[in-house]
Amino acid sequence: MAKTNKFTKNISQNSSVLTDRAVIVAGQAKRAQEDLVRSIEGRIDDMKMNIIKMTDISPDNTQSLKPTGQVVENPKQWVEDLHKTKVELALAEAELKIANETLSEWFSDADEEVKL
After folding, report:
1. DSSP E strand stretches across the chain
2. Is the pTM of this model over 0.90?
3. I want to staple 70 with a disulfide (CB 3.0 to 4.6 A). Which of 23, 53, 78, 82 is the partner?
């Protein structure tokens, strides 16, 4: 009969090792999903700020009625850029909804907490 040690016992009866691994991997996966949500939220904020900047066409000073920005210089490009940004924003908002649903579905706190 072969001698056993703590390492051998843990490998063969690995329920606590498996639980420990599962808790660690679950934490890593949850943090990765949360990072994804934050990343998408950051992109959405950037796009919203860009839209605000693009649509700020007020006069450049009180002495002139000349609008600021690209709208006067190249209206066609301004329209295309605004449209593209709004489409990207809508897609990012849909992506964020899915990412939040995944976070809730897979990583919401259960009634039973598993600890190391």
Report:
1. none
2. no
3. 78
Nearest to 60 by CA among 71, 50, 75, 51: 71
Q: What is the mean pLDDT of residues 81-105?
A: 97
Taking alpha carbons only, the member of 50, 57, 31, 29 closest to residue 92 is 50
| Amino acid identity at 13 | Q
Look at the block and give the residue holding tokens 């990207």: 88
Q: How many CA atoms lie within 13 A of 28 on its CB side?
A: 6
Q: Model confidence over 5-30: pLDDT tens digits?
A: 665 566 556 677 777 877 888 889 99
CB atoms within 10 A of CB 92: 19
Question: Is the pLDDT higher at 92 or at 78?
Answer: 92
Residue in the structure block whose two tokens are 């996966």 = 29
Q: What is the mean pLDDT of residues 63-85?
A: 79
Q: Residue 79 and residue 46: Cα distance in Å, rounded?
A: 18
- Which of 54, 74, 76, 58 lies closest to 66 in space, CA to CA? 58
